[in-house]
Every structure is written in structure tokens, then in C-alpha cells.
Amino acid sequence: MRQATVCFLLRRHEVLLGLKKVRFGAGRYAGIGGGVEAREMPEQAALRELAEEIGVTVEEDQLQFRGEVTFLFSARPAWHQRVHIYTLTRWQGEPQESEEMRPEWFSVSALPLDRMWADAAHWLPEVLTGKTVRLECVYADDGATLSSVMAL
């Protein structure tokens, strides 16, 4: 199964999300992240993706592990992935738009859940309060509707 990462930068009562501009998830808001490459640990992938997607530099010890969510797509097994979730409150540089992502700050109390993947409502608020999550989210054949969410 494909391994991936997602990171959420936090400041005061805000979280940085990115509007995905291309490929998988285009048009939706999400955390910053992507696939774990061969011979790369999830933490290393998270640091690389933060630099590539929004131009910030982070020390590995600043990543706060917040759990894993396994995503299964009934009609698209190639999309199956296990995502390692991190939050962080310290980084170097200002988040910048890239070809892939346009970063935007949101109040933690006003997340754009209607413009995110359907699963986000089941775990993102928990993660943003410092909790750790372990879930399996199964998407229906349409690739957009959740058919089940199960705690692991």
C-alpha cells in the first residue's frame, strides 16, 4: 500500500491548508504532504514535501506525530494509501504558492470541510486539538462518498 504524509502548520488559532491545484485531489483543500519515496522514512517525506509544496524548512524534531489514516477506494485500489499525520508550530520561511498548492490560513473553528475530502470531518478537528487518531476510511465506488469510517 502506498505510504504518504500530511502536515498541518499551526499558529495561534489557525491552521494552514493548501488548495490542491493539480493531480489527485485537485480543487480541494488539504494539509501539506505527499507520497513517501523509496528509502525514505515518513518524517523525511514530510520535510521534503513541506519544502517542495510551500517552500518552508522544518527540523525533523518539530514534527508532532498525530496518527495514521488508511484510505481505501472501492473502485480504485491504486489509490489506497496509509497517511502519516503531523502537526507543527515552528518552521522557517513564509508559506508560498507552488505549481501544486496554494496555501491559505483558516481559523481552526471555521475549517472549509465542505471543500475537503469527506473524511476530514472525522479526524481533522481531533488532530488540531492535539489528539492522535488511527482510522480506516473507505470510499464508495464514486471515489468521493465515504462508505465507512472505522477506528483502529
From TrEMBL:
It comes from the Bacteria. PROSITE patterns: NUDIX, NUDIX_BOX. Residues 1-132 form the Nudix hydrolase domain. Keywords: Hydrolase, Magnesium, Metal-binding. One of its GO terms (biological process) is DNA protection. It catalyses: 8-oxo-dGTP + H2O = 8-oxo-dGMP + diphosphate + H(+); 8-oxo-dATP + H2O = 8-oxo-dAMP + diphosphate + H(+); O(6)-methyl-dGTP + H2O = O(6)-methyl-dGMP + diphosphate + H(+); 2-oxo-ATP + H2O = 2-oxo-AMP + diphosphate + H(+). Monomer. Its cofactor is Mg(2+). This is Oxidized purine nucleoside triphosphate hydrolase. InterPro entries: 8ODP, NUDIX_hydrolase-like_dom_sf, NUDIX_hydrolase_CS, NUDIX_hydrolase_dom. The keyword Lyase does not apply. Belongs to the Nudix hydrolase family. The keyword Chaperone does not apply. GO terms for molecular function: 8-oxo-7,8-dihydroguanosine triphosphate pyrophosphatase activity; dATP diphosphatase activity; metal ion binding. It is an enzyme of class 3 (hydrolase). Oxidized purine nucleoside triphosphate hydrolase which is a prominent sanitizer of the oxidized nucleotide pool. Catalyzes the hydrolysis of 2-oxo-dATP (2-hydroxy-dATP) into 2-oxo-dAMP. Also has a significant hydrolase activity toward 2-oxo-ATP, 8-oxo-dGTP and 8-oxo-dATP. Through the hydrolysis of oxidized purine nucleoside triphosphates, prevents their incorporation into DNA and the subsequent transversions A:T to C:G and G:C to T:A. Also catalyzes the hydrolysis of methylated purine nucleoside triphosphate preventing their integration into DNA. Pfam families: NUDIX. Its EC number is 3.6.1.56. GO terms for cellular component: cytoplasm.
